[in-house]
Amino acid sequence: MIELERTKELAKKYKMNLREVNDKAGLGTNSIYNWKNKRPGGDALEAVAEVLNTSIDYLKGKTDDPTPIPTKGQPTSIPLDEEKPYSYHGYNVPERYLNMIRGLMEDDIKEGRADKK
Predict the structure, then answer these.
(1) 2-60 — its CATH code?
(2) pLDDT tens for each residue of the chain, 117 residues long
(3) Angle at 70 between CA 46 and CA 15, to 5 degrees
(4) Backbone phi, then psi, for 88, in 5-degree steps?
(5) Are 14 and 73 contacting, i.e. CB atoms less than 8 angstroms apart?
């Protein structure tokens, strides 16, 4: 099923195996593997989409763009202190780029230059 194939594709892109995705999403043992024969529920798809930083629509095959779309009321800021894969226009953002951003933000926070919403 497409949900399993797309999950495999993104997991590979982010150098994770399905077991890691499954565990980070808080799903039951081998839940993702069961998607081969059974469609996943909405809660499971939502959890996996969050782990893989994508949308449910992408996992379901409704769009070919893996970039998540913020929903109404969802913050538009990106928490860079979490352990999750980040992408920009479909390309993986390397950890060294994230570390540069974190360093710049830390400097701005210390110097009082950072704006807080």
Answers:
(1) 1.10.260.40
(2) 899 999 999 999 888 999 999 999 999 998 999 999 999 999 999 999 989 989 999 999 998 888 776 655 555 566 666 666 777 766 778 889 888 988 898 888 888 888 775
(3) 55
(4) -135, 115
(5) no
| Residue 99 C-beta-side C-alpha neighbours within 13 Å | 3
pTM (2 d.p.): 0.64
One-letter amino acid identity for 103? G
Phi first, then psi: give them for residue 91, nearest 5 degrees. Answer: -100, 140
3-state secondary structure of 74: coil
Q: Where do we find the tokens 């497409």?
A: 2
